[in-house]
Structure formats: structure tokens, C-alpha cells
Amino acid sequence: SRSRSRYGGSSDSVLIRRAVMGRVIGKGGVIINQIRQETGARVDAEDRDEDHCEFKIFGSEDQVQRAKSMILERADKANPSSLGDYGRDRGGEDGPEKEELEFPIGLFGGIIGARGAKIQEVRQNTGARVVVEKDQDTCRVIMSGSEEAVERARKMIKSLADEAKDGDDKHIEDDPDGERLEFPVSAAGRIIGSRGSQISEVRARSGANIKVEKNEDSCVVYLS
What's residue 198's pLDDT? Predict the structure, then answer.
């Protein structure tokens, strides 16, 4: 959970299942060292119990947030159900209230934001514990905490989902600052991915509005 660090600046932690710890650390520590180098944060890993390990992160607020997002991204990429959860963020508030929302998988990126930035903002602004789980067809948002915290989180999540849906529906091809990419129609499946998984991942990691238009002889991707 986020706090002031005795090393100076901020600190936070991420709990993940032991099964994917190696994917986050990498062979010879190459991945976790890369995270340390790119973010400037101090990252320590330790066992919590037989099934979980914990990454403790220290540094400035920006360094800690970037390192945490990179760890969550690696764990989620290795196994979407491996996180404690996206990522069982322990900075949220426990409480008697619990609510669950379900959305199409295509809205996943719009809800979590690039590197999890939007869902982290929901946690920070509401005080609720918010977990996002995904499977092939849907993404589920599970909120818990006080009644007020859950209500605030529900409103923010629905707003993010509406924005993501509007982003898919609006004509982003008319954006003067946007970009248009054209590919053979045979490439559409690889671009979109199974049930939209690939294009959702691109939206989540980039934060861009992306529309894929499949025509008879071409596949056009609009970016804005």
C-alpha cells in the first residue's frame, strides 16, 4: 500500500501469485532490473506465503507509480488471473459494501487506461478497492469499501466505460490530428485479434482512440 518511505519519497507494493513471479523478474533478473533502470525506483521482491510474493517499490511518487504499472503489466501479460488482482491494490479501503460491473472486453483498455493509469486514478480518488479481471469475452470490475467509496467508484467506472464506448463509436477518422493506416484485408484478423484482444491491448498500452474499419479489399486503422 502507498505510504511515505523511510528511503525518502513514496512507497507502494504489489502482491502477485508466485506462479508468475519469474515472468516479472526475468531470467537473471533482467526484467526487474530493466524496470528499475527505466523508472529509477527501488524494487525489492520477497515471499509473502506459499502462493504469493510481494514487490515493494520505493522512490518518488512518479517513479513508484511507473514501476508499479510496469510490474502489473508484466504480471497481467503472463497470466491475466495472476495478479493480486489488477492488481488487488491494497491501497483501497476495505468495507462491507461490494459491487461488480461487467463490460464487453473491447472496453477493457478504456477502463484501465495506459499502464493502468485510469483505474489507479479511480482508486486514489474514491478510496475504494478496485479489481479488474478479464477473460476472452468480458471484463469485470469489482469494487469494495465503504458505501460512499463504492458509489464514487461505480460512477467513475461507468463514466470511463461510456467514454471508451463513445471512442469506438465516434468518427475518429475526422480528427485533423489523427493518423490513417491502411493494410490488406487479410491482416484484419491479426490486427484485431481473437474477440478484439489485440486491439484492446494496443488501446490499453497506448491510451489512443483506435478504430478499425474492415472494407472489401482493405483494413483501415484510424488513430487519434
Answer: 77
